[in-house]
Write a structure and sequence with these properties.
This protein is mainly alpha-helical. 44% of the residues lie in helices and 5% in strands. It has six helices and two strands; from the N terminus they run αααααβαβ. Strands 1-2 form a two-stranded antiparallel sheet. The longest helix has 18 residues, at 73-90. The radius of gyration is 21 Å and the shape is extended. Mean pLDDT is 78; it is low at 1-5.
């Protein structure tokens, strides 16, 4: 609330943002399994239904990355990256959650560039089998059109390029 007031001057009327989102229920919660994650599991369960307690908010606020005011987005990114690098020194299994895939790509690229001198880019090579030349030609054209979109959601979550370095962490995802 104080963050909203500072950033936007407050909200003129009470707003229940939960009514502005579509609902998608997760039926299996893999990442929060285990006894060490009981607090997070409970908080995330309450986030899901929009019923956070004041204790939940205090815990979440304790996880907010302190940021200095900047004029450029890349300066904010540098602050997040530096904070994360300090964090993984103490907690090697830490991850950074970001709201968009583009932000994740920028974050990961910056981490690689800051920590590794030799980065290797692997580019996928598509090959096609087809019963006829026409089927093969249509498949090749479809892949070329998908490649132009630069969106892995159109290729079963598989990226066209992977940037890797020896010793870098890698998380493969498929949604």
């Amino acid at each position: 609330s104080s963050g909203i007031n500072a950033e936007y001057g407050g909200l003129p009327i009470p707003v229940n943002l939960w009514r502005e989102f579509d609902f998608e229920e997760l039926t299996i919660n893999q990442r929060q399994k285990g006894s060490d994650n009981g607090i997070w599991r409970s908080i995330l369960g309450r986030v899901r239904v929009g019923s956070l307690t004041s204790e939940d908010i205090a815990v979440l606020n304790g996880r907010v990355i302190p940021m200095e005011s900047c004029t450029l987005a890349k300066d904010y990114l540098q602050q997040v990256v530096r904070y994360f690098l300090d964090l993984i020194t103490a907690e090697p299994s830490a991850i950074c959650l970001l709201p968009t895939r583009n932000m994740v790509d920028e974050f990961n690229s910056t981490i690689l560039k800051m920590n590794f001198k030799k980065i290797v880019t692997l580019t996928a090579e598509d090959s096609f089998d087809g019963k006829t030349k026409k089927i093969k030609k249509n498949a090749e054209e479809a892949v070329r059109n998908l490649d132009k979109l630069h969106d892995s959601r159109n290729t079963a979550g598989l990226e066209k390029e992977l940037n890797l370095a020896i010793g870098a962490r890698l998380m493969l995802r498929r949604n």
